[in-house]
Specification:
The complex is a heterotrimer of chains A (334), B (297) and C (419).
Chain A: H1 2-6, H2 11-30, H3 33-58, H4 67-84, H5 88-112, H6 117-136, E1 147-148, H7 166-188, H8 191-201, H9 203-208, H10 213-239, E2 241-242, H11 244-247, H12 250-263, H13 270-292, H14 299-314, H15 319-326
Antiparallel strand pairs in A: 1-2
Helix pairs in contact in A: 3-7, 3-10, 3-12, 3-13, 4-5, 4-6, 4-10, 5-10, 8-10, 12-13
Chain B: H1 10-41, H2 48-66, H3 70-93, H4 101-123, E1 138-141, E2 144-147, H5 148-170, H6 172-182, H7 184-190, H8 194-219, H9 226-241, H10 246-266, H11 272-286
Helix pairs in contact in B: 1-5, 1-8, 1-9, 1-10, 2-3, 2-4, 2-8, 2-9, 3-8, 5-6, 5-8, 6-7, 6-8, 9-10, 9-11, 10-11
Chain C: H1 19-31, E1 37-38, E2 47-53, H2 60-79, E3 85-91, H3 96-108, E4 113-116, H4 120-133, E5 137-139, E6 155-157, H5 162-180, E7 186-192, H6 195-207, E8 216-223, H7 231-239, E9 244-248, H8 251-263, E10 271-273, H9 281-287, E11 295-298, H10 306-318, H11 326-345, H12 350-358, E12 386-391, E13 394-399
Parallel strand pairs in C: 2-3, 2-4, 4-5, 5-6, 7-8, 7-9, 9-10, 10-11
Antiparallel strand pairs in C: 1-3, 11-12, 12-13
Chain lengths: 334, 297, 419
């Protein structure tokens, strides 16, 4: 298994990867809580970016409504916990078929009826908006008044109920991101992965060679949706409150896609690198502005927009390919 | 807790429908701009609503500083937006025409973020409005009460739309642009300067949305966050009405305007946006070319 | 008041926008830094207080208003002989994630006490961080009940919950109906579909039956907080034939609703608001004569208390054309609680501070009621809410009698008769 995982990857790359992993593992022991919170956010966005990447980078379907799956996962797990006392891991098990069904429905509608490209993207937005307004009126989970999870205990960590110190949440997210990374790597080098790339490059040609494009596109959507929903479960138990306006909002969906795009669509490291860069940029900017004593709301986001513009114009494949060249790592797929 | 003492009188439905039609015409003008851009240049203009917001703020500033009524400033503001659109297309966007779609999205999303936040920095998050002398007027025709500002705005929108139709129908440049849209390769073969025409088209689309914004500011208050909402609405209308069909955009606008209004009246107003999305999904599935659109090959 | 969410329209409307105000505000924002500033005072080291407010994002206007409350506090604390506070400002950006990380950062930078954050969702996130780190957190404004139901030991709230605001509203309404001899027989209830609006709507169902109100609710109309056009909603309200309008809205909606009332030619006999918006400065500025009449049932200040007069004077000096309102009052009181507890605790140790806060008993304060005290849940349940009416561009307190300075006027003068 290890051999299959590391096949085709240079020694250099593996060494760098191991170093990164080690650094991430000991992070909670060396950084303060504030930086830990920032790292949790980095991993959160990296994880979702990785899941989103499956649909976009691998199968070429642009989803601008991924907040739908985060929200569904969050509300499912939260509702089960508050109304039935069921813990988050079981909650996730229930969220899997819920989000899978949702993704499948969207995929079915889109692919059966030939909705592609920008139309598909708009369809994903419509679904997320529908969910947002719908949940705003869904009294059983609090509606627009918000859904509050009861918060207790910081003294000891309860992994089963996901209640505890930030360090516990950090490791959970780290594990999730690492697993997502490995899963993507395996998928990419499997039959599914090759079919996905074929579909992404030229769907008609792929169909001509006999690939059932409908089925494989559905796989991409469903896997992406289910993976994303775990982030929602995490969100619910980490922040302990849910508002449809925030969790299903289109600005969230846009936030999710920034990391993998800046990092590099279709690459394994892209989402992680992108998330890290964005968070560092965000915090760094805040510090710089605070130091200069400048308090102009919107300046940070403006800077973000400019960075995004520059990346799109100058580094269209994202930062990772450029960085990989610098580090002289040849990523064996693209 | 809530109980109906009496049924909703019939004239309320009429009032609401008329209000929906009038607002819808303004939406239609906005969507028209997108239809022109998307239909011809094939660029997914995710910064459409944001461009409109720029026009709205210009109108607000001119009114605040010089007491100039937006209806009078319609043409000048449209011209400013034309120049902006032309420059944007020729300078930045043109290089992206041949790039993959998602890259275009991102370029325009980045532009949208830049526009929204620049406006936020300059004007702050609070809403700004244009309170003309007739801002509180309404006309009463029997049991029908018509909002004066909406009537004027809709009228101006119709005039602007007609002007655009005329341009595309009766002028050489307009015909050339339509040729580009219909057959890109053919247009090149015939020797049309496609790049210039694209820039011109984007400028026209921007002018359209500038006009729409100028009249819209009579009806609603503007904040920097208003842009993204209208971008989405514009896409819904264009897809519903039909890409490449100008009457389709107006029709789509009116349809969405009336649907939202009636849905708000009959069901709960807080959920009225859902109906626009429901219509969008239905159109995408069953009539993807839109109501008046031609079948996409 | 609680509100939430991102990317929506915010408080003021119709601001006079000239070149001068644009450059002035740009200049002002460049000059005011987020660097901590010290309020120098004779006794001991200043207490480091982290103030978390939404300074950007769609709640920015309100956050900035609360900030004014922070700025006028220093002088008053000095006069009272209370210890100085070293304020560390932070921006929650109207976002729950950011609120949480900013709270962490403030604590990492040495904040010994936190104050904030105007919004229930953000306050909830900060409360978790504060509780986990054992740093006292005094909430200035947030009405959602769950925050003080979690069994926290370090979280305190000097602001009424939605249920209290409602109960007081009904009591005050009955008092006003009795005093003026007129009452509506039916009302239409319009509310914004956000955290606060929905909480109030839920509360009405539970609380109203206990009060035997003279009116029934003909219909409940919920509208989208992002709505730019409320013509349909007002048409629907008018169609119910109700006498009066019961409303929970925000500033922008209040202005929109008023405009539509005028355009659609409907003058309800009363506008009873149980939320923000109808009493705010921008409402007066935008609507002029059309702004008179609405009565707001909200957490307010007692104009007869001596401290209120002091606060009013301080605000008038710093910001001459701004009326004293909830944002200033409760932010001031949160800081007052902090300074008072610091004095009694004699140390900045968080546990000592928390214990001192729990024993707070400030009667020389601004908000109506017995004063500032906290029950075992950290909630000040002795707060009373007032009824204020718009009159001639100013606000007068019309109920409850003990905290009033004017008589209520009902029914409201019709819009078409206001010249």
């Amino acid at each position: 298994m290890m051999a299959q995982l590391t096949e085709g990857v240079s020694r250099r790359a593996l060494l760098l990867l191991a170093t990164l992993l080690a650094a991430l593992l000991i992070a909670p022991l060396v950084v303060n809580d504030y930086l830990l919170t920032a790292l949790i956010l980095v991993l959160y966005f990296a994880y979702i970016g990785q899941a989103w990447n499956i649909m976009m980078g691998f199968a070429g379907q642009l989803s601008l409504g991924h907040s739908l799956y985060v929200g569904l996962g969050a509300y499912t797990a939260a509702a089960l916990f508050i109304h039935f006392g069921i813990g988050p891991w079981l909650g996730f098990l229930v969220a899997i078929p819920v989000t899978a069904a949702c993704g499948a429905f969207l995929g079915f509608l889109a692919f059966r009826f030939g909705v592609a490209g920008v139309y598909f993207a708009i369809l994903t937005i419509a679904f997320a908006e529908f969910a947002r307004i719908g949940f705003d009126h869904f009294a059983w989970v609090g509606g627009s008044a918000g859904f509050f999870l009861p918060v207790k205990q910081y003294a000891h960590n309860d992994l089963w109920l996901l209640r505890g110190a930030p360090a516990m949440f950090y490791y959970v997210m780290l594990a999730a991101t690492a697993l997502a990374f490995i899963a993507c790597r395996l998928l990419l080098h499997s039959r599914i992965g090759y079919f996905w790339q074929a579909i992404r490059e030229d769907e008609r040609a792929a169909r001509a060679t006999g690939i059932d494009t409908f089925r494989y596109k559905m796989y991409a959507v469903i896997i992406s949706a289910v993976m994303t929903s775990f982030a929602g479960v995490f969100h619910a138990f980490y922040y302990n409150n849910l508002f449809p306006e925030q969790i299903f909002h289109i600005s969230r969906s846009i936030e999710f896609i920034l990391a993998p795009i800046i990092g590099g669509i279709g690459s394994l490291f892209g989402p992680l690198l992108g998330a890290f860069l964005l968070e560092t940029l965000a915090e760094g900017l805040r510090e710089v502005l605070a130091l200069l004593g400048v308090d102009v709301p919107g300046l940070r986001q403006l800077f973000f927009g400019v960075c995004l513009l520059l990346v799109v114009m100058l580094l269209p494949d994202g930062v990772w390919p450029w960085l990989a060249r610098r580090l002289r790592i040849k990523e064996s797929k693209r | 807790m809530a109980s109906r003492d009496r049924a909703v009188p019939a004239e309320i439905y009429l009032n609401v429908a008329v209000s929906g039609i009038l607002t819808g015409l303004v939406y239609g003008l906005m969507a028209l701009g997108l239809s022109v851009i998307f239909g011809v240049v094939r660029v997914v203009n995710f910064a459409h609503g944001e461009l409109m917001t720029i026009a709205m703020y210009i109108a607000v500033v001119l009114f605040s500083a010089f007491k100039l009524d937006p209806l009078i400033m319609l043409v000048p503001i449209a011209m400013v937006l034309f120049a902006l659109g032309y420059a944007l297309q020729a300078g930045v966007i043109n290089a992206f025409i041949t790039r993959p779609e998602h890259t275009q999205f991102l370029l325009l999303i980045a532009l949208a973020i830049i526009i929204v936040n620049t406006l936020l920095i300059i004007f702050g998050p609070d809403a700004h409005s244009v309170q003309t002398s007739y801002a509180f007027d309404s006309f009463q025709v029997g049991k029908l009460i018509i909002d004066a500002t909406k009537l004027y705005a809709a009228a101006a929108a119709l005039v602007a739309a007609t002007a655009l139709f005329a341009f595309f129908r009766f002028t050489d440049t307009g015909t050339a642009i339509r040729a580009c849209a219909d057959n890109y390769a053919g247009a090149l073969t015939v020797g049309l300067d496609v790049n210039r025409l694209y820039a011109l088209t984007f400028g026209l689309g921007a002018a359209c949305v500038g006009a729409a914004g100028t009249v819209l500011v009579l009806i609603i208050d503007v904040t920097p966050q208003v842009g993204p909402v209208y971008t989405l609405l514009a896409f819904v209308i264009v897809i519903t009405g039909g890409l490449g069909s100008m009457p389709g955009s107006l029709l789509g606008g009116v349809l969405i305007g009336v649907t939202e209004a009636m849905a708000g009246l009959i069901f709960t107003p807080s959920a009225k946006s859902m109906f626009a999305f429901a219509i969008l999904v239905l159109v995408l599935l069953f009539r993807p070319q839109g109501i008046l659109g031609r079948k996409i090959s | 008041m609680t509100r939430k969410t991102i990317n929506r329209n915010s408080s003021a409307a119709g601001a006079r926008l000239t070149r001068r105000t644009v450059t002035a505000s740009l200049g002002a924002t460049l000059l005011t830094g987020s660097a901590p500033f010290n309020i120098i005072c004779a006794q001991g080291a200043p207490l480091k207080v982290g103030v978390l407010l939404p300074r950007s994002g769609f709640q920015a206007g309100i956050g900035q208003d609360c900030q004014r409350g922070v700025e006028i506090t220093a002088g008053i604390l000095k006069d009272l002989g209370l210890p100085a506070l070293s304020i560390m400002n932070a921006d929650t950006e109207t976002n729950v994630d950011v609120a949480r990380s900013r709270a962490e950062k403030l604590i990492a930078d040495g904040a010994q006490l936190l104050v904030g954050a105007f919004d229930s969702g953000q306050s909830s996130a900060i409360a978790q961080v504060a509780e986990q780190k054992g740093i006292p957190f005094v909430i200035n404004i947030a009405a959602a009940p769950p925050i003080t139901e979690q069994g926290y030991k370090f979280v305190f709230r000097n602001f009424p919950v939605a249920g209290t605001i409602l109960a007081d509203a009904f009591v005050n309404q009955k008092e006003i109906f009795e005093a003026t001899g007129s009452a509506p027989k039916s009302v239409v209830f319009m509310h914004v579909n956000d955290t606060f609006g929905t909480a109030m709507k839920g509360g009405i169902g539970a609380v109203m039956p206990k009060f035997n109100m003279p009116y029934t609710i003909a219909e409940t109309i919920a509208y989208d907080p992002a709505a730019r056009d409320l013509s349909v909603e007002v048409s629907k309200a008018k169609a119910t034939g109700a006498d009066a309008l019961l409303v929970v809205s925000r500033l922008n909606d209040a202005i929109l609703i008023t405009r539509e009332l005028v355009k659609q030619r409907w003058s309800p006999m009363a506008i009873l608001s149980m939320g923000p918006g109808w009493y705010e400065d921008q409402y007066f500025k935008t609507l002029g004569k059309l702004s008179d009449g609405p009565i707001s049932f909200v957490p307010w200040y007692d104009p007869n208390k001596p401290m209120s007069k002091k606060l009013e004077a301080a605000l008038a000096k710093a910001y001459p054309d701004i009326n004293l309102n909830t944002n200033h009052v409760y932010t001031f009181e949160a800081l007052l609680v902090a300074a008072d507890a610091y004095k009694r605790a004699g140390s900045a140790d968080p546990k000592a501070l928390a214990d001192a806060i729990r024993k707070t008993n400030i009667t020389n304060n601004v908000s109506p009621g017995a004063g500032i005290q906290f029950n075992e849940k950290g909630q000040n349940d002795k707060l009373k809410d007032s009824a204020i009416q718009n009159r001639g561009g100013k606000l007068v307190t019309v109920a409850p009698k003990v905290a009033a300075n004017a008589k209520p006027e009902l029914p409201m003068k019709p819009y078409d008769k206001r010249g």
